[in-house]
Amino acid sequence: xxxxxxxxxxxxxxxxxxxxxxxxxxxxxxxxxxxxxxxxxxxxxxxxxxxxxxxxxxxxxxxxxxxxxxxxxxxxxxxxxxxxxxxxxxxxxxxxxxxxxxxxxxxxxxxxxxxxxxxxxxxxxxxxxxxxxxx
Length: 135
Hints:
Residues 1-18 form the signal peptide. Keywords: Isomerase, Signal. This protein has a domain at 47-133: Jelly Rolls, CATH 2.60.120.10. Helix content is 15%, strand content 38%. It has one helix and nine strands. The strands form three sheets. Strands 1-8-3-6 form a four-stranded antiparallel beta sheet, with no helix packed on it. It has a three-stranded antiparallel beta sheet with strand order 5-4-7, with no helix packed on it. The protein has a two-stranded antiparallel ribbon with strand order 2-9. Strand 4 and strand 5 (89-93) form a beta hairpin.
């Protein structure tokens, strides 16, 4: 009987120990819309995740462009200002997380005095361009 109780106690506490030892997760962002309110839509086709670090020198500009796939971004360092046309202008700094506008033209500039580094994660599809320059 004692062995049975001890076994039951071990089994009952094992899941708790497993949950308690899981690394803590700090959610940086959870969204269903872009920074300008566009509902997220994934491109058709075979899913493809692209992760990149974008580095911009002080004063460097992106030029007008749009994204064909949702883009989650995290500011690793520096500051950028993005112009969204009629939707306004926003400045992002180190530690900011966002879902960038897509399918809507926008342009960015490193508005800080130092390098800007952005972790960009595109939720795209094979054969679909993540970024398209605007004419």
